[in-house]
Amino acid sequence: MIGIVGPQGVGKSSALLVLESTLKVGFESRDVILFKWQRERDLFESLLEGNHEASPEFLRKYQEALVDTYGGVLWEPCDMYVESPGMIPVRTIEMEFSKNACEILRRRTWLNILLRKKVILIDTPDYSKTDKRAMAKDLNDIYWLWNTLTRKSRNRPHLVLAVQKEMFRGHFFFDKMTKIELRPLGPNEMLEAYRRRFGMTEPFTQEALLTLARMSRGIFRRFLRYITLTIELWQTRPEPRELIDPATVKEAIPQEQLIEDMELELGELFPKQSDLRLVAVQLLLLLEESGPQKQTHLTKHLGIEDYAMSRLLTKLELHHHVTRQRAGIDKIVSGTRSDQSATFNKHDV
Predict the structure, then answer these.
(1) Theoretical Cys-Cys bridge with 52: which of 6, 46, 140, 310, CB 3.0 to 4.6 Å?
(2) Angle at Cα 40 formed by Cα 221 and Cα 98, nearest 5°?
(3) H or E stretch including 164?
(4) Starting at the edge strand that comes first in sequence, how are the strands of the sheet with 178-181 ordered?
């Protein structure tokens, strides 16, 4: 059991897609499966409607299982399902049997598909801070699946699970995983990604893109959204428009937006202290833009008392947002993200 862990929006789904394509080179294509985790009712609805990654395989095997298990259903010409043109669609077949009988066979068919796989890649949904019960329920179900596959499968398939870092605590299942952390990108890496995609930095200046990257805190999904919001504001300006500069970026992405987007990261640290969340965002952005700072300078710059700054930094350090090093009678405070790059690649698993 391997857990790919990263903050919401950092690129866990993309990492699984890359991993899937890489593994299919070493395995038979049918031995590897990637899918988004869903509750049972949504799962089978998606599989039967053809909206699931595994729908073609499931529909084929489920059709066959219905006929083999319950019999009495005639084959007739039908073009509603291309891969089995000579079989009645599963929805029509199911009408001949009880709901309970169909549900049992659906579960059995889905489990049999997974038992034949060598690698199973599961992308869990994004959870908000109010979704802890939903996350616990999903993890319990995935743990049951893992145990079942381990006991019943001859192949003992590898299970790779993408897990949201903000929720990566408090469940016994996490202790059973080998963890690979997908760290946020650094600002220069985000700038390079933009250049590779468009061949230039326009309509932004280079410093404006770096400002956007710092505001995004290494979360690529957030970076793309901030780019969109900034361009939308820039397009409201009268012609001729100059290149987008950092001032335009800061106008398009106010601090309230940054606080809202960092709610999962900071909400648990300061659940009832919105003023401290604001100071934390300002502090982290300052460290991203200016690099390591003396604690006394941060205290003066942000206009808070020494004891409040000390408590704030202690919480941020405990949750790995900053680090502190003694420098004489002062301390040097550094951010933990600005120089980090994503450590996941195809050789890590």
Answers:
(1) 46
(2) 150
(3) strand 158-164
(4) 32-36, 119-123, 158-164, 2-6, 178-181
pLDDT in tens, 74-98: 444 344 443 444 455 777 777 777 8
Cis peptide before 203 (omega within 30 of 0): yes
- Scanning 27-164, the segments in alpha helix (DSSP H) are 40-49, 55-70, 90-94, 99-115, 132-152
Query: Token pair for residue 150?
Result: 């381990």
With residue 297 as reference, give the H or E element that holds it. helix 295-302
What DSSP state is assigned to residue 162? E
Instruction: Give me the residue spans of the domains in the chain.
Output: 2-55+102-181, 184-253, 254-349
d(CA 44, CA 271): 38
Is pLDDT of 336 > 80? no
- Give the sign of the dihedral formed by CA 235, CA 240, CA 244, CA 245: negative
Q: Tell me the C-alpha distance between 16 and 122, whole Å.
A: 8
* Cα 160 to Cα 2: distance, rounded to the nearest angstrom: 5
- pTM (predicted TM-score): 0.72
Task: Output b/e per residue, 71-94; b: 16+ Cβ within 10 A.
Answer: eebeeeeeeebeebeebbebeebb
Specify which residues 36 forms β-bridges with.
123
Query: Concatenated DSSP letters for 249-283?
Result: HHHHS-HHHHHHHTHHHHTTTSTT-HHHHHHHHHH
Q: Does residue 80 or residue 217 have the better pLDDT?
A: 217
pLDDT, tens digit, 9 for 90 and up, residues 254-269: 888 887 887 767 766 7
Residue, of 289 and 313, whose pLDDT is higher: 313
The percent of residues in the chain predicted with pLDDT above 90, rounded, is 31
Express as a percent the part of the chain with pLDDT over 70: 89
**Residue 155: what residue type?**
N
Task: Name beta bridge partners: 122.
Answer: 35, 161
What fold is seen in the domain 2-55+102-181?
Rossmann fold (3.40.50)
3-state secondary structure of 331: strand
- CB–CB of 113/59 below 8 Å? no
